[in-house]
Amino acid sequence: MEKQLTKLNIFSLKGVQMRTFHITWLMFFVCFFGWFGLAPLMPTIRAELHLTKGQVGNTIIASVAATIIARLIIGKLCDTWGPRKTAVRLLLVGSLPVFLVGLAHDYTSFLLFRLAIGVIGSSFVITQFHTSMMFAPNIKGTANAVTGGWGNLGGGVTNMVMPLIFAAIVGAGFTKAEAWRYAMIVPGVLMLIIALLYWKYTKDTPNGNYDEVGYAKTNPSKTDWSILADWRVWALTMAYAMCFGMEITFDNVASLHFVDTFHLSQSSAGFWAGIFGFMNIFARALGGIVSDKVGGKFGMRGKGLLLAGVLLLEGAGLILFAQSGNLTAAIISMLSFALFLKMSNGATYGIVPFINSKNVGMVSGIVGAGGNLGGMMFGFLFKSSTITYVQAFTYIGITVMVVSLIVLITRFQKQAETKKAEELVLA
């Protein structure tokens, strides 16, 4: 009889739990690679399609807005269809706009394709849900943070890799206008490959797929809307808006900021923007690991205090980044706020699985959607013709610090049945 793992051996592919662990973060990685694939190419796209600052801002908002609704729906689908079917269907449908965005030849069509591509950002919810099914409560925070961090890495790696793919296509004799279009075929193909791996090598639960273990019969799919009255859900939603919302905003605007403010080339700007995302290889996992350690010693209250602390440091780092007068200072401050931002991501989802164990998918979806809502709201600052990027970063830093105080006064406690489940696993 398979069961949830109580230890995480990241170098293992043994058992359905670890196979699922690696395939689900890889699915998340590839989706984010496709979702942000256009961001480092925006200097070229902006020039070719003659986009204004406001129009660029609108495309950023569109790419994030679609994910808000998609994350809410995906969370529910994971509860009903199971994460395996949900992931495969998302990959197949989501690959279409990634392949076809190259057909855009004006602002309106480009905007609509970015809106459609945004749906694949909901892949995060599947990963967090699926990881929660495979690991015991004592290691859930760490496992969720590692899969979340390595998946988020796709948003950083794409900033580094897509300009190289673009340059290689230009080097092969194609124009810049053709190159950015052909470059997007790469993430589309990767999504189809991962869909096949997900279908073939993962299961919904350690004991089998939903239809094999009768999950739907023993877990009725009626939505428990009472979770909407739980203040803790909304505190975590705001927290995630401040950390993950800022992350996807930075992934979208970093290249343009470095090009416009420090006059870097598209490839150099993509490299530094990629360094920000590359920190996910350890920083989000670090947030989850520390959350589990603190939780083991100080309980849910300790997890809440940790989240408030790293959010506060993220906000302070953002303000320093905004005031950086040269590239060196900007890079150093970027690395500092990136560390605490990504730790905040991990610390948030170190708490999420314990809020309501019967509705993990819904809670995960709501909090995840909050991240995108934050990203969308921040997008309005960056499209404004009266607010500079520097001012936008400053305003966001202040807002993050305010939210950290809200998290500080929120009392996080484990649900009774979650406590019992944890005691049984650890017994």
TrEMBL record:
<protein>
    <submittedName>
        <fullName>MFS transporter</fullName>
    </submittedName>
</protein>
<dbReference type="InterPro" id="IPR044772">
    <property type="entry name" value="NO3_transporter"/>
</dbReference>
<keyword id="KW-0472">Membrane</keyword>
<feature type="transmembrane region" description="Helical">
    <location>
        <begin position="302"/>
        <end position="321"/>
    </location>
</feature>
<dbReference type="InterPro" id="IPR036259">
    <property type="entry name" value="MFS_trans_sf"/>
</dbReference>
<feature type="transmembrane region" description="Helical">
    <location>
        <begin position="180"/>
        <end position="199"/>
    </location>
</feature>
<feature type="transmembrane region" description="Helical">
    <location>
        <begin position="388"/>
        <end position="410"/>
    </location>
</feature>
<feature type="transmembrane region" description="Helical">
    <location>
        <begin position="86"/>
        <end position="105"/>
    </location>
</feature>
<feature type="transmembrane region" description="Helical">
    <location>
        <begin position="111"/>
        <end position="129"/>
    </location>
</feature>
<keyword id="KW-0812">Transmembrane</keyword>
<dbReference type="Pfam" id="PF07690">
    <property type="entry name" value="MFS_1"/>
</dbReference>
<feature type="transmembrane region" description="Helical">
    <location>
        <begin position="360"/>
        <end position="382"/>
    </location>
</feature>
<keyword id="KW-0534">Nitrate assimilation</keyword>
<dbReference type="InterPro" id="IPR011701">
    <property type="entry name" value="MFS"/>
</dbReference>
<feature type="transmembrane region" description="Helical">
    <location>
        <begin position="21"/>
        <end position="42"/>
    </location>
</feature>
<comment type="similarity">
    <text>Belongs to the major facilitator superfamily. Nitrate/nitrite porter (TC 2.A.1.8) family.</text>
</comment>
<feature type="domain" description="Major facilitator superfamily (MFS) profile">
    <location>
        <begin position="20"/>
        <end position="415"/>
    </location>
</feature>
<dbReference type="InterPro" id="IPR020846">
    <property type="entry name" value="MFS_dom"/>
</dbReference>
<feature type="transmembrane region" description="Helical">
    <location>
        <begin position="150"/>
        <end position="174"/>
    </location>
</feature>
<feature type="transmembrane region" description="Helical">
    <location>
        <begin position="327"/>
        <end position="348"/>
    </location>
</feature>
<keyword id="KW-1133">Transmembrane helix</keyword>
<feature type="transmembrane region" description="Helical">
    <location>
        <begin position="231"/>
        <end position="250"/>
    </location>
</feature>
<feature type="transmembrane region" description="Helical">
    <location>
        <begin position="54"/>
        <end position="74"/>
    </location>
</feature>
<feature type="transmembrane region" description="Helical">
    <location>
        <begin position="270"/>
        <end position="290"/>
    </location>
</feature>
